[in-house]
Write a structure and sequence with these properties.
alpha/beta; Amidase signature (AS) enzymes; eleven-stranded mixed β-sheet; 11 strands; transferase activity; Amidase; AS_sf; transferase; Amidase_dom
């Protein structure tokens, strides 16, 4: 049954309908893949194969009767563990959390269950989702399937690892500074952050989004109609639109597209990353787009201001913990946050102003262009055991210069693979468009995926 594991969502649903593959058969194939790979990959939390197989058997009977219960009936999906599911604890990636069962499904979990998807596992994240890493004091260490000695990125680390390892077609992460796009870039996946508020999220916070991480653009298109349905709990959500996500590839002829190759601060862009993004931009140009180079989007003061604001907010949370619980937090994070004790209120307020300044910069850069291309990640890879690409709590956000500003500006953005390094590691291209232009990003991604061709060398991990 392992040969069916690579079916995308659209083909899988057709196979269920045609009765050539059953949900039970597909779920068994996923479990077989997980059992073979997970001891080395470390992507999952709360993996429940027996419950999943029971749900798959029920879905199989519905499909045999021609009565599927929703648009994703019988399709396996993982959720980042920060996304609550009723009755299950939300450890938030840290040993400091008291494991109390959630009293309700978060919006994304609720919508997926309504449409029959099988949430067969959660995926790992670092302590409090505050790192771009698979390192956690609660979870096992998540590794990048393309090279198990390297980091999948984060904070949707397990989702990236699970997607690259082939644990089914759908994985859902969260993103407040790039936490869907960064690991998607490092693991070869398509990762999408919608316009802020398009996908309801709870609990909400400025810039926090929920988004799919999948091997193909089409797999994300299949889940977006489900997870974008409204939920009253998200007070930051935008008015619901029943968009047609089944988009065709964009025709870019005559389109003006911006290109940003330097974030303005943070880690220097690796030569291989720059070359891959330039090659991708040339593909757009060859199809008739006008490529316009744009200046940096971020200053050192902007990044330091964000850092100060986030440190201060997080330190207030740390102070609520008992001394015993605080001692269980990853030392890297505790060292980063505790520095906020020396930050005055004026500096914190100025940090918030820098977040607003980034929002204005994003709007300015997009003025006059349909979309913007850039790297997702500035570097090719870093060790699995590192908590961040710098391994330095004094410089924790040096890698988010291309991704984080779009969270501050609320724009839709995606990561899509645009090549590989000489060492065989995936490199991500970011595509961004203006607020509410989600379909533009998806059409452009669909077009680029067609020009690029499918990824055929997904990693195979020996048991």
């Amino acid at each position: 049954m392992s040969g069916i594991i690579d079916l995308g969502v659209r083909d899988l649903l057709k196979a269920f309908s045609d009765k050539t593959v059953s949900p039970s058969e597909y779920m068994a194939a996923v479990c077989e893949r997980v059992d073979a790979c997970e001891p080395k990959v470390g992507a999952l939390y709360d993996y429940r194969p027996e419950q999943a197989m029971k749900q798959a058997a029920e879905a199989t009977q519905r499909w045999l009767k021609g009565e599927p219960d929703g648009a994703l009936d019988g399709v396996p999906v993982t959720l980042k563990e920060l996304i609550a599911t009723k009755g299950d604890p939300v450890p938030m990636g840290t040993a400091a959390t008291e494991l109390v069962p959630a009293d309700a499904d978060a919006p994304t979990a609720a919508r997926l269950k309504e449409d029959g998807a099988i949430i067969f596992a959660k995926t790992t994240c670092p302590d409090y989702g505050m790192l771009s890493s698979g390192l956690s004091t609660f979870h096992q260490l998540s590794r990048n399937p393309w090279d198990l000695s390297t980091n999948p990125g984060g904070s949707s680390a397990g989702a990236g690892s699970a997607g690259a390892a082939g644990y089914g077609p759908l994985h859902i992460g969260t993103d407040i500074g790039g936490s869907v796009r960064l690991p998607a870039g490092w693991t070869g996946l398509f990762g999408f952050k919608a316009t802020q508020g398009r996908v309801p999220v709870y609990p909400y916070y400025p810039g926090r989004c929920v988004g799919p991480m999948t091997r193909t653009v089409d797999d994300s298109l299949m889940v977006l109609p489900v997870i974008t349905r409204p939920d009253w709990r998200d007070a930051t959500s935008v008015p619901y639109e029943a968009l047609d996500y089944d988009v065709a590839p964009a025709n870019v002829k005559g389109m003006k597209i911006g290109l940003i190759l330097e974030a303005g601060t943070g880690l220097k862009v690796d030569g291989e990353v720059r070359d891959a993004v330039l090659a991708a931009a040339r593909m757009f140009e060859e199809q008739g787009a006008e490529i316009v180079e744009l200046g940096p989007m971020l200053s050192r003061d902007n990044l330091n201001g964000l850092d100060a604001f986030w440190r201060a907010r997080f330190w207030t949370q740390m102070q609520k913990l008992s001394e015993e619980a605080r001692g269980k937090v990853l030392p890297y994070i505790l060292e980063w946050a505790s520095a906020a004790a020396q930050i005055d209120g004026a500096t914190v307020a100025a940090g918030f102003d820098h977040m607003l300044a980034m929002r204005q910069t994003c709007a300015t850069l997009l003025n006059g262009v349909t979309a913007i291309l850039s790297p997702v990640n500035p570097i090719v890879s870093y060790p699995a055991e590192w908590p961040s690409p710098t391994n330095d709590p004094a410089l924790p956000f040096e890698h988010i210069g291309f991704t984080m500003p779009w969270n501050m500006g609320d724009q839709p953005a995606c990561s899509i693979n645009c090549g590989f390094s000489k060492s065989g590691m995936p490199i991500g291209l970011q595509i961004v468009a203006g607020r509410f232009e989600d379909l533009t990003v998806l059409r452009l991604a669909k077009a680029f995926e067609d020009w690029r061709g499918p990824i055929t060398n997904w990693p195979v991990i020996a048991a």
